[in-house]
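Bit of a strange request maybe. I'm writing a small parser for structure token strings and I need a real example to test against, not something I typed by hand. Could someone generate the tokens for this chain?
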Amino acid sequence: MNAILPALLGPLAALSEGAHHDTDLTGSAVGLAAVVVFVFAYLLVVAEDVIHLRKSKPVLIAAGVIWILTAIGMNDPETIAHRVEQHVAEFAELFLFLMVAMTYISAIAHRNVFFKLNALLVNAGFGLRAIFWTTGALAFMISPIADNLTTALLMGAVVTTVGRGNTRFISLACINVVIAANAGGAFSPFGDITTLMVWQAGHVPTLVFLDLVPAALVNWLVPAILMSLAVPAVRPQAVTEDVELKPGWLMVMLMFLATIATAVCFHAVLHLPPFLGMTTGLGYYMLWGYWTRLNARRYQMAEPVDVFDDVAKVEWDTLLFFFGVLMCVGGLSELGYLAVTSEALYTGHGPTNANIAVGLISAVVDNVPVMFAVLSMDPVMGATPAAEIHQWLLATLAAGVGGSLLSVGSAAGVALMGTTGGEYTFMRHLVWTPAILLGYAASIGVHQLLNMPAASVLAGGG
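Reply from user aminoacidic:
Good idea to test on real output. This should exercise your parser:
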């Protein structure tokens, strides 16, 4: 899945120490069986709207079966146990980051902040199309700073509140938010995990990532223009009742901002995993809840805050789906599929075609292990430093925005599927995949055009 902030970097760094193993079971019976299991589970996820089977169930079972097959194929208990621990560590950091973000979103919603914003937008005369463009633009601008997952959750909450009852608008606006958040995160080291991985590896200087802004903007605008034509040209019904913000709304908002700032500082200043900053920020909320309980008993104030009520409202199906997918991909990686695929792409098809393919693969398979496989292989991207940077930027762009092609291709998409109550689904997203693919191709073209000197040097250098 695309862009899970820097939450996975710690385990990935550890994983790199033992990543270069020679296991290649891609042609074996266990390897082929693992692929069949993964594909079957993925088809069940795709059919969730039809069969009404929650998406976490097939991938959880598939993850267990794939690791059974991996253990049988590798026949090395000590190594396999170590590998499992490393992949679980990846999910643990993602889980803690997501759990805190979703808890704060729940707390903010509980205090009517999104309903109040809905009333302000509607009563100010904003139509659904204006809201469609506003939420998309905000997602594009905020995600480079706050990361695309958190941004998508915030904008998704606004969309579902404003458009409640209008499934067509909610699904279109959520697709727009996912595309915009993924595109915005692609040109910032802190907006997308794959961007951060490339930056940490030293392949692209910090400010050079800004060269991706035009391509990222095109990636969002092309499908957004097409989708906006399908947005109902109506105004939401005016909010006649006075929406009251519940006590503590401002404090919760400030604590959420402080939590995001803490996570960024933990990584940028102290070089600690960002999830630790998020869990520290959850501690802010828990201490405040303790203070409200004390005052409620002493001064008979309003109802005290119970933080665990908000924790209980976290979308656990989404979190377990993440776990299942990461473990499935982890097992396939240990069987050698990602390494073999990366080798085949960069050796047989050249860096430009390979990098474009990386984005397409990221729509189906989590882009984090895909990019990690590329970084581990460290292919020759070009004949000159300029050509190398150009191709690494292309790989970053493709991996960052390729996940927008499917709802399950990015963390932003999966998170919104879990928080919109069935209004935004895989099939509704799939209808617009051709438009998103057009935006993907256009963004690749813009990047190639704006970096023509580097691309020409690369072509000349073979």
